[in-house]
Amino acid sequence: MILCPHCGKENLPVATRCVHCGEDLEDLFRIEGTDPDAGLPEEQDISVSDLLQAFRQEDDSQAEKPRPVISIGKTPEPAASEETQSVTPEGEDEQTPEWLARIRKRALQEEDAAGELSRKINAMEASRAEEHQGRVDEEFANWIARIRENARRENLLAAKPAEPSPESEEGVPEWLRKVRELQPQDAEQNQPSEETIAGFSIEASAQEAEQGDEPAQEAEQVDEPALEQSEPAEALAANPQEESEPGAVPELESESAELVLHPDEEASPDARADEEPSEGPKTPELEPVLEELGLTAEVGALDLEEKPSSSEELSADLLLLRKQKENAQMLMTLIGEEGKGLPPAKTAREASKGWYRFILGAFLLLVLAAVIVFVPEARPIKFENPTPAVALKDALNALESGDTVLVVQEYQAATSAEMEQMSAPVLRALEERGVKLQFLTTHPNGLWLSANLMDAADIPAREISYLAGGRLGVLAAALQLDESSAAVPGALENLENYTLILLLEDSQADIQNWIEQAGPWLKAGKLGILASSQNAALLLPYYDAGQLAGYAAGTMEGRVLADALDAPTAGAPSRAYQAGLLVMIAVLLLGMIIKAEADSNARHQKEPEA
Amino acid sequence: MNPMDIVLGVIGIALSVMIFSYLLGDNFFFRVALYILVGVSSGYAAAVLVLKVIIPRLIEPLRESGTDAFWLGLVPLALCLLLALMLVPRTVKAGTLPLAFLAGTAAAIGVAGISRGTLAPQLLAIVNRFSPDLLRENAVADWGGIVEAFFILFGVISVLFYFHHRLSRRSADAQRPLLVEGISGVGQVFLGISFGMLFVGFYSAALTALIARIVWLKEFIVALLAG
Question: What is the ipTM of this complex?
Answer without folding.
Answer: 0.82
